[in-house]
Design goal:
Order of helices and strands: HHHHHHH
Radius of gyration: 20 Å
Number of helices: 7
Shape: elongated
Distance between the termini: 27 Å
Structural class: mainly alpha
Helix content: over 70%
C-alpha cells in the first residue's frame, strides 16, 4: 500500500486536470478506468503509466516522424500518430479478451474446487481462499480475482457485491 501511494497521488492529480483537457470528461475518464481494470490493469501505477504512454507515445511518433521525414511530411506524421494510438487501443482490447478467455477457461475448475471444499465442510470464505491458492499456478488471472473477492469480503463488503464486482472486473457484466 505504501508503494502505491505516490502513484495514487499522481492519478488523483490527473483526475483533477482531466476536465481541462479537450475531449476528456469525467464519464470518459471513468470508462477508461473500467476498461483498463477489465484488461487487468488495476493499480494506480499501471493506470498512470498506461495513460502517460497513451499520450506520449503517439506524440513522440509524430515528432519523430517530422524530424525523420521532414516538416513537409506532417500529414504522414499525423497518420502515424493516429495509428500508434489505435494500436494502443487495440492492445488493451486484446488484453481484455485474453483475460476474459483465461477466466472463462479456469472457471469450471474453480467451481469444482469450491464445491469440493464446501462439501468437505470448509466455510465458503475459506473455500474461496483455498481455491485461489490452488489456482495460483494454473490460472493466475482467476486466482488474483478470487483473492480480490476475498479481500473485499474481509473488508466488509457483502459476498454478493464482491462477486458482482468480480463479474464487472472480468467484463462479464457492467
Amino acid at each position: 500500500a505504501m508503494v502505491e501511494e505516490p502513484w495514487s497521488q499522481v492519478e488523483a492529480a490527473m483526475e483533477r486536470w482531466n476536465p481541462h483537457l479537450p475531449g476528456v470528461t469525467q464519464t470518459r475518464w471513468s470508462l477508461w478506468r473500467d476498461r483498463l481494470r477489465r484488461a487487468g490493469i488495476v493499480s494506480a501505477r499501471g493506470r498512470v503509466v498506461w495513460f502517460a504512454t497513451a499520450l506520449v507515445l503517439p506524440l513522440g511518433v509524430a515528432v519523430g516522424s517530422v524530424l525523420f521525414l521532414g516538416s513537409t511530411r506532417w500529414r504522414t506524421a499525423l497518420v502515424m500518430a493516429c495509428v500508434t494510438a489505435a494500436v494502443m487501443h487495440l492492445a488493451i482490447s486484446r488484453q481484455t479478451a485474453a483475460r476474459r478467455r483465461a477466466i472463462r477457461h479456469a472457471l469450471p475448475d474453480a467451481i469444482d474446487l469450491l464445491t469440493l471444499c464446501v462439501e468437505a465442510g470448509t466455510g465458503l470464505d475459506q473455500a474461496i481462499i483455498k481455491t485461489s491458492e490452488e489456482l495460483a499456478l494454473t490460472s493466475p488471472v482467476l486466482s488474483q480475482e478470487l483473492r480480490a473477492v476475498t479481500e473485499e469480503i474481509r473488508l466488509g463488503r457483502a459476498r454478493t457485491d464482491a462477486f458482482r464486482l468480480f463479474a464487472e472486473r472480468s467484463g462479464e457484466i457492467g
